[in-house]
Amino acid sequence: METTDWIRDGLRAVGGSVLTIALSIANFALFVLFLVALVSTPVLGLGLVLVPAVTALVRLRADAARRIAARHGVPIERPYRVRPAEAGPIGWQACRWILTDPATWRDLAWLVPGAVVGLGLGLATLAIPLYGVQGILLLPLWIWLGTGSYGYGFIWPIHTVSEGLLSLPQGALFLAIGLAAAPYVRRCDALFAALLLSPTGNARLRARVVELSFSRADTVDAQAAELRRIERDLHDGAQARLVSLGMTIGLAEELIGRDPESARKLLAEAREVSTTALVELRHLVRGIHPPVLAERGLDGAVRALALTMRLPTAVESDVTERLDTPVESAAYFAIAEALSNATVHSGATVAYVRIHRDDDRLRMEVGDDGRGGADPGRGTGLAGITRRLGAFDGTMTLSSPPGGPTVVTMELPCVSSSPRTTLSSVTA
């Protein structure tokens, strides 16, 4: 690590300790408020309003601690149960939901110990570098001014200018130690918060069940929408042409005896209709599972897709083996949708696709140099990608500030199905 890096990290940690001290003091107030809300529950039902309100504040404080811990490399999941449909913002159902959630009591158990630990570590994080700054600046200044207020150094009394100047290296040492240790001290605070604010095994299991329930519902909806699309395409396309083909052949049969020339024209028209119907059926099949994906795998299919895009698209991939067919299909269509959005909506001049395999995770990145400002809530494309990946426990993150660039990062759990020996990286 470069010198400027640890100094910058140390200064950030020292600055963050000021916020932690203030928040730790707030912990005591929140603890008292929560106890008052509980005690007031039997009194005129006042707690039916106070308990949800104070709990919301406590959870905001706990979430702030989780965000601070994440900045120091200690991610903490939110353990709270999903609010029941019948529970409003206040009232008995809301209180029941809050008070029967074990996470509520874990937050309450953390408030006071978290405040004590946060205050202690925060003050230590501040005190050591501040003592170093005092040694570097204040003591020599007092001696130089000749006030006679020489004070005492950390080890011996200061009576002379020469002895006062000894505080300079001592102060520099304490400042360096304080800045170097500050990030680790803040991490200790984060680790302590994780002891009580992290979800328990049962809470994780419940959250996982809820997540899978939503994922299953999204998958069922996506499958139903896909079936409706296939049915619509068949009805409006190939089916209509095949019906027309049957009628044309029937007319040709009636005319073949008395007007062979007209019958030949009808048969030629029928041949054209059959060719068009076959093309539409091929497109429909490609929309279900592209043949190139079955033949070449994800790497080859994405490169073939990039060649068909109106937007010049660079492809980089280190995927050297075949993946499970459902994973390959989900990854391919997610990339195709992201590229389609970039082509239609971004106003970009170039795009790129990067595919990287990291053990059992497949990471895909689609970016463009367009105008940015993409929003998953304003259309179905990005939301569809999220649903498609969610069926496989995958994730999608979007970075699209106004003015661009736009970067869509997608991850999927994956396992290899069979080895491949081809590896290439070209620009389409």
Automatic annotation (TrEMBL):
GO terms for cellular component: membrane. It is an enzyme of class 2 (transferase). The chain crosses the membrane at residues 12-37, 43-62, 108-131, 137-158, 165-185. It comes from the Bacteria. Residues 331-413 form the Histidine kinase/HSP90-like ATPase domain. Keywords: ATP-binding, Kinase, Membrane, Nucleotide-binding, Phosphoprotein, Transferase, Transmembrane, Transmembrane helix, Two-component regulatory system. GO terms for molecular function: ATP binding; phosphorelay sensor kinase activity; protein dimerization activity. It catalyses: ATP + protein L-histidine = ADP + protein N-phospho-L-histidine. Its EC number is 2.7.13.3. Residues 19-197 form the Putative sensor domain. Residues 226-293 form the Signal transduction histidine kinase subgroup 3 dimerisation and phosphoacceptor domain. InterPro entries: HATPase_C_sf, HATPase_dom, Put_sensor_dom, Sensor_HK_TwoCompSys, Sig_transdc_His_kin_sub3_dim/P. PANTHER family: NITRATE/NITRITE SENSOR PROTEIN NARX-RELATED, NITRATE_NITRITE SENSOR PROTEIN NARQ. This is histidine kinase. It comes from Paractinoplanes ferrugineus.
